Amino acid sequence: MRAMFRSLAGTNYLIWAAGALVSNIGTWMQRTAQDWIVLTQLTQNNATAVGFVMALQFGPQLLLLPVTGWAADHLDRRRLLLATQGAMGALGLGLGLLTVTSAVQLWHVYAFALALGVAAAFDAPARQTFVSELVAGPNLSNAVALNSASFNAARLIGPAIAGLLTAAIGAGWVFLINAGTFGAVLLSLTLLRREQLYRTERAKRSPGSLIGGFRYVRRRPDILVILIMVFLIGTFGLNFPIFISTMSVSVFHQGAGEYGVLSSIMAIGSVAGALLSARRERPRVALLFAGAALFGVGCAITAVMPVYGLFALALILIGISAQTLMTTANGAIQLTTDPALRGRVMAIYMAIFMGGTPIGAPIVGWVADTFDPRWALGVGAASGFAAALVGELYLVRHRGMRMRFSGIRPHVTMKPRERLREGLEETEATATQAS
Length: 435
Description:
- There is one protein chain.
- By secondary structure, this protein is mainly α.
- It has one domain (3-434): Up-down Bundle (Growth Hormone, Chain: A), CATH 1.20.1250.20.
- It has helices at residues 11-40, 47-63, 65-74, 77-100, 106-134, 140-168, 171-191, 212-218, 221-236, 240-251, 256-279, 285-303, 308-336, 342-355, 357-370, 373-399, 425-434, and strands at 401-406, 409-414.
- A two-stranded antiparallel sheet has the order 1-2.
- A hairpin with a 2-residue loop joins strand 1 (401-406) and strand 2 (409-414).
- The radius of gyration is 21 Å and the shape is globular.
- The protein starts with 10 loop residues before the first helix and ends with a helix.
- Residues 403-435 have low confidence and may be disordered.
- It is found in: Cell membrane.
- One of its GO terms (molecular function) is transmembrane transporter activity.
- This is Integral membrane efflux protein.
- Residues 12-399 form the Major facilitator superfamily (MFS) profile domain.
- The chain crosses the membrane at residues 12-29, 49-68, 171-192, 223-244, 259-278, 285-305, 311-333, 345-368, 374-396.
């Protein structure tokens, strides 16, 4: 148990984690309330509109990729986070005031989603790489996993609170509460002991530095395969606001409270997946590919559940598999990337992870509207199986490994003449050569 939470022994990481947890709870509250008012108050159960909001919110991750990665590598990350977190808090306040005064319209939500997306595009790579300044190298993988656990603990708590508050006092107050929670993370950034930060040398400003991350990734097939898998599942599989809201409203005919409960139940699996990842000293590559396959299985099972209760239980498997996949991918990339390029590489990772949403969300929303929400979950299942196939092909071609399944437990076998130590030893050697 102590090994699972070893990163919290550092004062700076403990301060940061506490503030981030409070802020993340508020963020998930806002996301839940925002999707709900778009689906039920500003439109007539229009899943495409929800998908468009997601596209506006996550599109800047992709469009601003070269600039945001450069900023994370060249600017002071703590100060950058103070600016981005403050901006997102102000946007939550603005949307909340419009909503409680009954002035909000659909185009307002679109505009705030786009502005929030711009702030989040700068925030994400800085926040991901800032962890390496809070903990020493040996504990970085654990800190990444605990960050994911914190994020998903917030996803467990936030939607449930949002559902209750939306039904009791309205979505506008949920937005205002979210604005207040940003004070926690701003306070934690202020309280950090700056003399104890593990600062790395900032990347030098030089011609071509904006595209340095792309050149680095191009030389790293191990990172490329992870990015392809993350793109497939992030684009077509992680559209949970569409899956859950449309199934809740259109299929099971539930209200705001029950919708919030579904998001929280799925987060139980996500927290479990993140904590299991935190126990491991290093990310396991084979686990990444197994997680993709199990995600496909989970979406397929969830799509055919006949009643609300069974649907809710099936979401736990989706949560476990998705979080195992994403935590392992995040840790593998951060641990094996040249520190001078980590911000730009993580910006590419976040752009592919979140930036695929503008492509996938409208498509998945259209499928839910045109056919059925269950078919939208089928798209998610296909993305998981496709990502697992990509991973299997990489294992066979580059590492002489094959993955088979007994029940739901993955097993990896290796050709004797090409036997490699499982883990990231080969990846780490590649990283050293590339740097």
